[in-house]
Amino acid sequence: MTSVALLHRITDYANRADPYPLYAELRKTPVVQDEAGPYVVSTYWEIKELLHDPRISSDARNLSPDAPRGPAQEEDPNLPPTFLRLDPPEHDRLRGLANRPFGPPHTPRRVHDMRSELGEIVSGLIDGFRDREGGDGIDLVDTFAYPFPVTVICRLLGVPREDEAHFHQWADTIAASLDPVSAEDREARAETTRQARSDLALYLAGLIEERRKSPRDDMLSAMAAGHGPDGQLSPVEMISTAALLLIAGHETTVNLITNGMLTLLRNPDVLKRLRDDPDLAVPLVEELLRYEPPVQLLPQRTTLTDIEIGGTVIPKGASLWLVLASGNRDPQRFPDPDRFIPNRPDNQHLGLGSGIHSCFGAPLARLEAQLALTELVRRLDNPRLLEDPPVYRQNAVLRGPRHLNIAFDGLK
After folding, report:
1. Transmembrane residues, as ranges (predicted)?
2. Where are the chain's structural domains?
3. H helices present in 30-71, as ranges
4. How confident is residue 180, by pLDDT bands cut at 50, 70 and 90?
């Protein structure tokens, strides 16, 4: 493959249902410069090396003035960048403060202690399928894969679940901003995204002020009141961090669960194995993160100096795209990479990233997917796809079905 319309082919909706043959073609040249300007890296070892290289920046301010700006690289003048878009030491300070109420070492059992609560949410949602037994089926996204992680992140943060209708639209708009668009569409989308960010920021600012006055056992209260060796989040940093956690806390997990059920229904032998052995869920979710990762590519990196990678010199300030999903199918790292092997050994995939920007919510996402898929295959009698391939979301970065219509004969 040459540079001819490379990114257009990757992001073209016509390839959304199955981008993997395109990735295989892309891997023939590990580093390619697209005609639009970005350097695209597609092979496992090169991506892994760059994710751990301190000469690679996540801060769009380090792009050279003439470098193409990718999705999610437009600055919001009213809010500081989230830690996803910063480098050390500021990244480390913000991520550390955000992590205090979420995980080790300060709250090591936060996710573990949610297991029972998560199980109750899953059971309740599946119980709601009962009136559709043997009927026209259900859309698993709208009835389960979306409401489950949204309910979880709302409870974790302290966001009222009844406000979902408001933040759903804002979250969809902000998540869509990750998706590459043509130059003529960029300005119109940027304005829509700015408005969604502003509306979400005002909403979260109100919630944070409420928690400051009347703290509860949730992350918003902990962030509003928290003090540590690195100080505390400023008011605008709290808003920016809360918005990131709210959106990232459900957008990717929706895809993980939906891609997981789609993969199981396409592989009935594996579905039966999981039904017979629920412990298989742990390695199965790891293989799912390799085989159908919810985040397909990282389009917001740049170089702090000239770097040689895969025989190509990438100049300082260049736009850099890392195609995680392609690296996960690299036969130089994973034998038989296009086959779903639920207990694949040595499965050091890139599905949750790697390095300092590895997924903040990885423990929760893993647990949610394990519980969701285990209960779905246990309780649904003869589940089957009504449409394959399903209708996919427009987004090429956060790739997953927008609808997953399935039928089943009954509930156990």
Report:
1. none
2. 6-411
3. 44-51
4. low
Q: DSSP 3-state assignment of 309?
A: strand
What is the residue-wise DSSP string for 216-239?
-SSHHHHHHH--BTTB---HHHHH
| Bridge partner residues of 321 (DSSP) | 40
Contact between 138 and 161 (Cβ < 8 Å): no
- Compute the chain's Rg from CA coordinates: 21
Confidence (pTM): 0.92
Per-position b or e across 268-285, b if 16+ CB within 10 A of its CB: eebbebbbeebebbeebb
Fold classification of 6-411 is Cytochrome p450 (1.10.630)
Say how far apart CA 79 and CA 95 lie, in whole Å: 16
- Could you identify the residue written with the tokens 């090591």? 108
91-103: pLDDT as tens digits? 999 999 888 888 7
Burial class (CB in 10 A: 0-12, 13-18, 19+), 154: buried
DSSP per-residue codes, 108-151: TTTTGGGHHHHHHHHHHHHHTTGGGTTTT-EEHIIIIITHHHHH
Give the residue carrying structure tokens 């996710």.
111
Expressed in angstroms, the distance from the first to the final Cα of the chain is 50
3-state secondary structure of 181: coil
